[in-house]
Amino acid sequence: MRSSRARSRLASLSLALAAVCLAAPGAYAADAEPAAAGKYVALGDSYAVAPGTREYDNPDDPCRRGPSTYPRLWAQQHPSYSFVEASCSGATTADLTGQQVPQLTADTTLVTVHVGGNDVGFVEVLKNCILTIDDKDCIAGVEAAKAAATSSLPGALASTYAAIRAKAPNAKVVVVGYPRLYTIGGTCGILGLSDRERTALNSGSDTLDSVLASEAGKAGFTFLDPRTAFDPHTICSKGQAWVTSLEWDKINESYHPNKAGHGEGYLPLLNAITG
Asked: Which of 89, 233, 254, 256 is catalytic?
């Protein structure tokens, strides 16, 4: 009789232990780190990193990344996302395909891609407009860049976008555009570039954005157009400038979004798309 009771108690104890063991994984899971809500990878050129902000992680790093850029700010506002910053100053579509796109993975859920200006030589166009006296030289350079934007850039973008989709098949991809640089007839007066040159540079931005928007649509990506938001804050406007003007002490800071351009310009536009 005692043996029967002992066996009964032992059986009850075994069942209780089994129940605890089965419940334990759930209890530990509740205490574990939550899985990331998503993965954000930023691809791009100097407009996606820190030139114009004057704040850098390492001033000697050629990629020129820093803390005040719109991808960094978005990642800070969405801490449940893991974040990979692949963008690098000076990047072209070829650089993205060869060096940045490989950093995408199948679990990537959000990609921003900010590239195209270097492919058509807009940096050299700006330098030419700054250093030449004759308006015609500046305007001719802009027209050459616009011709490149409409002829060779579409194919380069299509290849880059296809590579992005192949590496991140389920990601939302946002193609980020470039702002116009100048308010025509604004507060700059006759100093610096002429209004003819400023108008030509603005038309270069418009052509570039038109190509980016078209190729983004073909790829099924979303185009972020910054021009309307930036127009009241361009160089020579009466509002707070979101774009740096010519800075002789640091030429490579010139004609880029500043801290306000990233934080008050690009970031809200990106949030409006991503939620």
From this structure: 256
How far apart are alpha carbons 58 and 66 in whole angstroms?
Answer: 8
Q: Is 210 a catalytic residue?
A: no
233 noted as active-site residue:
no
Identity of residue 95: D
* Contact criterion met (CB below 8 Å) for 176 and 113: yes
Alpha helical stretches, state H, the chain: 2-31, 70-77, 93-95, 122-131, 135-151, 153-167, 195-219, 227-230, 259-260, 267-274
Sequential pLDDT tens for the chain (275 residues): 444 444 444 444 343 433 333 333 333 344 455 567 899 999 999 999 999 999 999 999 999 999 999 999 999 999 999 999 999 999 999 999 999 999 999 999 999 999 999 999 998 998 889 888 889 999 999 999 999 999 999 999 999 999 999 999 999 999 999 999 999 998 887 677 999 999 999 999 999 999 999 999 999 999 999 999 999 999 999 999 999 988 776 777 889 999 999 999 999 999 999 98
Residue 28 pairs in a beta bridge with none
Q: Which of 46, 87, 237, 254 is catalytic?
A: 46
> In terms of Cα–Cα distance, which of 52, 77, 74, 78 is closest to 65?
52
Query: Which residue is associated with the tokens 């070829």?
Result: 94
Phi, psi (degrees; rounded to nearest 5) at 7:
-65, -35
The Cα–Cα gap between 85 and 96 comes to: 12
How many helices (H) and strands (E) would you count in the chain? 10, 5
- Global pTM reads 0.86
Give the separation between CA 249 and CA 178, rounded to whole angstroms. Answer: 24
SS3 (DSSP) at 143: helix
